[in-house]
Specification:
Shape: elongated
Low-confidence stretches: none
Distance between the termini: 42 Å
Mean pLDDT: 85
Oligomer: single chain
Strand order of the largest sheet: 1-3-2
Strand content: 5-15%
Number of strands: 3
Length: 207
């Protein structure tokens, strides 16, 4: 079923980066490993607001260690998007652009925290709740984020399968409509219908 899933350009970029850094398994997705790989300094500060600051040369992400480990990891992958994919000071941007960047960071978070090339190698339980729990445990994220990612994957697979089935349906219709594929009985009936029309003086126009 997972073979129907088509990765996005962003997912492909993340996978390429991860592979180049030797980040190949869920165990490799530690904050320190990923942060160091992307040359991003991680600063833990009690009560800190999770945010990223960066320029053309350096980047830093502030995290609050008082929160549950899973939430800290999710905040890290969200904030990591900004120095890697965005330019400019968010505070100086119009609200609509800040909201767009936050939406992009939420998408990046799903891809970076639970890369598809890792997910597809995991034997998932048949029951959805069990699959969500297993993915949350393996990737060190909350069940909520695990559910969002799994449902995103399921939705993409459903859309891809539906598209393929629709294309196949159209191809089958064209095949059935082609006289070359008709059975002998259908061809005989078609020729008889033409003969009767010709006998009645009705022209037959082929387009």
């Amino acid at each position: 079923m997972l073979s129907f899933y088509q990765i996005t350009v962003l997912e492909e970029w993340i996978e390429t980066q991860y592979r180049s850094f030797g980040i190949l398994l869920p165990l490799d997705l530690t904050i320190d490993h990923v942060g160091n790989s992307f040359n991003t300094h991680v600063i833990y500060m009690t009560g800190a607001k999770e945010e990223a600051i960066w320029d053309d040369e350096k980047a830093a992400i502030f995290l609050n260690p008082d929160k549950p480990v899973e939430e800290v990891r999710e905040a890290f992958f969200h904030e990591l998007c900004h120095p890697l994919r965005h330019a400019g000071d968010q505070l100086m941007l119009p609200r609509i652009f800040r909201e767009l960047q936050e939406t992009q960071a939420n998408q990046f978070q799903l891809y970076a925290a639970m890369p598809f090339f890792m997910v597809k190698d995991i034997r998932l339980p048949s029951y959805k709740d069990e699959a969500i729990g297993l993915l949350a445990q393996l990737f060190g994220v909350t069940p909520l984020l695990s559910k969002r990612r799994l449902e995103q994957i399921e939705r993409r697979i459903y859309e891809a399968r539906s598209h393929q089935e629709f294309v196949q349906h159209l191809q089958n219709q064209r095949t059935r409509a082609d006289p070359a594929n008709w059975c002998p009985e259908a061809k005989a009936m078609f020729r008889l219908a033409i003969q009767r029309k010709m006998q009645k003086g009705q022209g037959v126009v082929f387009r």
